[in-house]
Design a protein that fits this description.
Largest sheet: 7 strands, mixed
Number of helices: 15
Protein name: Tyrosine decarboxylase
Strand order of the largest sheet: 3-9-8-7-6-4-5
GO molecular function: L-tryptophan decarboxylase activity; pyridoxal phosphate binding
InterPro entries: Aromatic_deC (IPR010977), PyrdxlP-dep_de-COase (IPR002129), PyrdxlP-dep_Trfase (IPR015424), PyrdxlP-dep_Trfase_major (IPR015421), PyrdxlP-dep_Trfase_small (IPR015422), Pyridoxal-P_BS (IPR021115)
Number of strands: 13
Order of helices and strands: EEHHHHEHEHEHEHEEHEHHHHEEHEEH
Structural class: alpha/beta
Strand content: 5-15%
Distance between the termini: 68 Å
Helix content: 25-40%
Keywords: Decarboxylase, Lyase, Pyridoxal phosphate
Shape: globular
Pfam family, one: Pyridoxal_deC
Radius of gyration: 25 Å
């Protein structure tokens, strides 16, 4: 078999990653994926008699080390080339539904195929159907960050490939998760009760939807143990009309009566944050009606406008009525590692649980949603199962954490590796700079919008999301909404950028969020010019 040449993968300007000890203490931002510098169309493939079948496929020695070494190099080259050329792709996929069925066979191959053939299909058939979330021109929804550190952590996790549902199945996975979430809790200045050394602790979930669900289940069962299971139909859950839809789904799964989910109306005058007065009124009415207030999901950085609910005031209300307070900071939690944004978490000490998505804006590849809970006993009592085949001395000794009892599934991946690598290889100061740079770019975009009198800013910009819309001359709201729908379609159909919309106070509003790892000032300026040009075309034809 031929000898593979040694390789190193550049991780950021001026630095490199290799098995040898690094000369520098950390890696640098703000371009985490800029490191890959190979040519996308030039993937060279060669065969080894020991690792390949006659037709170029892999021999069924599933984890042969040399086979892995050879093919993983090629896969990294392919991915690196993808990032180098990512700006050449339409950001939003331009394919029609069902396109892929026409391009792929109806059945799996009986004999192995070559990696070259598979990657050729990826390049010609799969990538045209991909919406490129890592593109610097991706401004839709909220970001889903990727980085070299996150990628390497994901690679290592896949290589180790353990299923860490209990401490004994992989002690390092359990203990690293506890440690790294304590690190992150410290950066956010969360109360000591949320740390692993306290009565609570942290656990990595797949998404914020899972975090909200398990918190709701813990709250539900806590109350039902006191009042009886027959009271399930009387339990009431609260949020606002800006709360993420995952709360509604959690209620459906938890058996909360559909009529007992209160999504309280928010107002422009409160910047679309939940009003403590409206919450108090709703709770008082429910108590008078013989219902049982159970759970409030407050948000730091709502999806539509990044509104911040007043945690301190809401916490006093939930404490008075014995309501479980969950804080969803899926997007904006990342910004709160910066001292100047940490005040948005004032009052979090009153919360019973808190979540933040590291895979959104924290350079940690999807999926990695951090959940902290103040009282782990409530969660474990709700989710624990202990069949005979899972019993072991460590678990029965009550000295370890078994994360199977903190989540819906039994099995779990070694997710903490990638978060640990992000924190270590970039460092807190670089991560703070990364967040600040995106917020600065969003402010720059907001300034550009404000300078064009044809547009208006619809909501206060708190982090890196700008909500704006095009104004028609006649000020008719129905016409304005149609005009902005048409503008959104035209902008996204160009393939040059991807933005999304929301509705605020019955207004159809465009959303542009800065958060992709590769986005620079030039991308912001180009995006605004495109929007302006398409707006001019819409207004001329109106």
């Amino acid at each position: 078999m031929r000898t593979m040449r040694s390789r190193s993968v550049a991780v950021a300007a001026g630095d490199s990653f290799s098995p040898a000890p690094a000369k520098r203490r950390g890696w640098h931002l703000p371009s985490p994926m800029k490191a890959f510098r190979l040519t996308f169309v030039n993937c060279f493939f060669s065969t080894s008699t020991n690792s390949r079948s006659e037709n170029g496929g892999l021999n069924l020695k599933a984890m042969d080390a040399e086979q892995l070494r050879e093919n993983a190099h090629k896969m990294v080259d392919f991915i690196a080339d993808y990032y180098k050329n990512i700006e050449t792709f339409p950001v939003l996929s331009q394919v029609e539904p069902g396109y892929l069925q026409k391009l792929l066979p109806d059945s799996a191959p009986l004999q192995p195929e070559s990696l070259q053939a598979v990657l050729q299909d990826v390049q010609t058939k799969i990538l045209p159907g991909v919406t490129h979330w890592q593109s610097p021109d991706y401004f839709a929804y909220f970001p889903s960050n990727s980085s070299v550190a996150g990628f390497l952590g994901e690679m290592l996790s896949a290589g180790i490939n353990m299923v860490g549902f209990s401490w004994i199945t992989s002690p390092a996975a359990t203990e690293l998760e506890m440690i790294v979430l304590d690190w992150l809790a410290d950066l956010l200045k969360l109360p000591n009760d949320f740390l692993s050394k306290g009565p609570g602790g942290g656990a990595i979930q797949g998404t914020a939807s899972e975090a909200i669900l398990v918190a709701l289940l813990a709250a539900r069962d806590n109350v039902l143990r006191e009042v009886g299971k027959d009271a399930l139909g009387r339990l009431v859950v609260y949020g606002s009309d800006q709360t993420h839809s995952s709360l509604q789904k959690a209620c459906q799964i938890a058996g909360i009566h559909p009529g007992n989910l209160r999504l309280l109306r928010t107002e422009t005058c409160n910047e679309y944050a939940l009003s403590p007065e409206s919450l108090t009124d709703a709770i008082s009415h429910d108590v008078t009606s013989g219902l049982i207030p159970l759970f409030l999901c407050a948000t730091v950085g709502t999806t539509s406008s990044t509104a911040v609910d007043p945690l301190l005031a809401l916490g006093k209300i939930t404490k008075k009525y014995g309501i479980w307070l969950h804080v969803d900071a899926a997007y904006a939690g990342s910004a709160c590692i910066c001292p100047e944004y940490r005040h948005h978490l004032n009052g979090v000490e009153e919360a019973d649980s808190f979540n933040m998505n590291c895979h959104k804006w924290f350079l940690t590849n999807f999926d990695c949603s951090a959940l902290w809970i103040k009282d782990r006993t409530a969660l474990i009592r709700s989710l624990s199962t202990n069949p005979e085949y899972l019993k072991n001395k460590a678990s029965q000794g009550s000295t370890v954490i078994d994360y199977k009892d903190w989540q819906i599934p039994l099995g779990r991946r070694f997710r903490s590796l990638k978060l640990w690598m992000v924190l270590r290889l970039y460092g807190v100061e670089n991560l703070q700079s990364y967040i600040r740079n995106h917020i600065k770019l969003a402010q720059q975009f907001e300034d550009l919008v404000a300078q064009d009198t044809r547009f208006e800013i619809v909501a206060v910009r708190t982090f890196s999301l700008v909500c704006f819309r095009l104004l028609p001359a006649n000020k008719n709201e129905e016409h304005a909404n149609k005009l902005n729908r048409d503008l959104l379609d035209a902008v996204n159909s160009s393939g040059k950028i991807f933005i999304t919309h929301t509705v605020l106070s019955s207004k159809y509003v465009l959303r542009l969020v800065v958060g992709a790892p590769l986005t620079e000032e030039r991308h912001i300026i180009a995006a605004w010019k495109l929007i302006q040009n398409e707006a001019s075309s819409r207004l001329e034809s109106a």
